[in-house]
From TrEMBL:
Extent of Basic and acidic residues compositional bias: 18-27
High-level lineage: Eukaryota, Metazoa, Chordata, Craniata, Vertebrata
UniProt record similarity statement: Belongs to the NDUFAF4 family.
Subunit structure: Binds calmodulin. Interacts with NDUFAF3.
GO cellular component, one term: mitochondrion
Name under which the protein is recorded: NADH dehydrogenase [ubiquinone] 1 alpha subcomplex assembly factor 4
InterPro entries according to UniProt: NDUFAF4 (IPR009622)
Ranges for region Disordered: 18-44
Amino acid sequence: MGGRVTRVFRNFNVENRARREISKEKPTPAPRHPTARLDAMTDSPEIKEEVFRKDDRFLTLLKDVYVESRDPPVQVKDGGGERLPCKQEEKRLTKLGHLEALDVKKVPKGKISIVEALTFLNNHKLQPQIWTAEKIAAEYSLELKEVNSLLEFFIPFTVQEFPKETKKAIKGHKPKKLT
């Protein structure tokens, strides 16, 4: 509602106020300094003559100037960091099993995917007599030293469920009161 009231006052007598502003005399611009006018200088014949006259002293100095430019020698880039591969890296298909959709399909020889690593670690944990380090190295194209390190330092997670009796025993335990 406040907008309607302000609009009424703003539009009141608009035409008369506009005519009054238009009919006012325009302010006169400030006078210009006489040296700022370039038209007067170009009209004088002395200035025109000075501009078009050749000065022999400047011409002789200009003839003494000799500029010789040479392109720098072209340096051939040796491509220190950028090298084309000498041979194509050998790749092998992964041995995935039921987790096939989660992993990559091809892995370079000497490397292993995460799903394969988890698979052979779990197989070694469940059947260490069958899945020895030598068999894993041969199966996955790995070095024996690396397989031994993997088997020693990486252990897959195990899920442990507590029997219900221990859960009751834990719930039934009352904390001691401090006195």
